Amino acid sequence: MAANKIRVATTSLAGCFGCHMSFLDIDERLLELLEHIEFDRTPLTDIKHCGPCDIGLIEGGVCNAENVHVLKEFRKNCKILIAMGACAFNGGVPALRNHYSLKECLEESYLNGVGVVNPLIPNDPEIPLLLNKVHPIHEIVKIDYFLPGCPPSGDAIWTFLNELLAGQEISLPYQAIHYD
Ligand code: SF4
Asked: Pfam families of this UniProt entry (predicted)?
């Protein structure tokens, strides 16, 4: 590994991996990016823990105790932390459950919902403890940049990373981030 490469980690918390799929939409430009960066923990490398990094990209909000642990590990080890996509930004789709109590959500999913057979709320200690609400990641740790979109486009991610790596002020064009 080249010593002067920017080290990047990514993870998905309470998200759908759509933002990571969008990251891969950089397509062949990923090879160009890899001339300047190397990956630490990410679904692409399957490294399980985030080591010291320059940049951490976080997809998804925070819905359980494991998400809190992973997010704090990223904050501790990454110089720059980026909220990538609506779920990280504001809780997104998973935060729709915030309109209901956790008890109501579990009962609807595992006891009373359409198509439920063998009604039983899972309580294995191996399962991460659910939080009462889904949180945007800035409510748990300090975030340095917010990249909006559901998901942000590959072009937006590409432009964002290039400007960040070049030490420029981030200035995404309106066309890259409008959703009207
Ligand atoms: Fe999926 Fe959209 Fe959330 Fe990204 S922002 S993880 S694409 S739901």
From this structure: Oxidored_q6
